[in-house]
Amino acid sequence: MKKTIFILALSLLSLSACKNDKKQTEKNPMQPQEMNMKEMDMKSSDDHEKDDHDHNATMGDKDRHINATTDKNTATSGIIDSYLQIKNALTEDNKEGAAAGGNMMLTAFSKFDMSKLTETQHKEYMEIIEDAKEQAEHIVKSPIDHQREHFENLSIDVNDLITLLGTDKTLYQTFCPMYNNKKGAIWLSETDEIKNPFLGSKMLTCGKVQKQIN
Amino acid sequence: MKKIVLFLIIAFVGIQFIPTTRNESTEILETDFTQSFEVPQDIQSLLKTSCYDCHSNNTSYPWYNKIQPVSWFLENHINEGKSELNFSEFGSYSKRKQKSKLKAIINQIKDDEMPLSSYELIHQNAKLSKIQKEELLNCMTKLRDSL
To answer: How far is A77 from chain B (nearest CA, A)?
Structure first.
């Protein structure tokens, strides 16, 4: 009987140990990241030249040949609005605001009317949305550094979505050369005034408009 | 006091009879990460020891896995891990998803968030050394850039 209690205690102990541990890593993600980023910077300097080619390329343009449209499509507005909310919250280092935008985006996806899509658009749309949804879900539940990592992918997805389906909004594709270990990243903005969502108050005005949509 | 202990023991014995689904498969799918991409042997074995237990269709279970409530915890844990990333099905992901998963893998390893430290506590061999970490990061970065 003592043995049983011992095993029970042991299993409970191992469970609680797991949970505590997880919390700790979540609480303090900055330090190791910064350290390792420096390491990576040094290590991957050879790769930089190659990386530079990718600066302007989005996933879709590069290997999937999305047929670009100039349609003034209003069906994408809900998705774009929620994207801009996430973007604006991140420029203000506002984690909760970004999370709320993530939820808004998930709702916008579920409300989106797919019946008007052509067959090829539909296939492409599903792939974009599958990825974008995951990014949005993570933005809802993550600390701000992670939100920004997911926002980077989300920006590519939303940009591709606009290429695929069009919008009536005027948007600016803006490029931040600093983010992601100087690999750079794009975001979309409703204004050509630079407010950087990746770096926030650390370097709010870093960035350059690359392209105007509409 | 005696009653409480007795109750706990009965409950503990009782929950041992609740079945759990085991995440085991001997088949290596065509869609497995190591089949879809050319991955060097040492990286393959790194992935198997440090990632596959929670991120594939085949877990090599620890000795204590048959004891409840540990099995429950592990089952949930593995399901969650697999829904985020399943190396056994990586090849069936769209290119877009593969690319964004590779990026997430890189970030998680870089930030020391994966493997989970609670997992490393019991699986000492799953801990990535500095060199292993770099090897893994290089390999994943190369793959991502090739997509």
So the answer is: 22
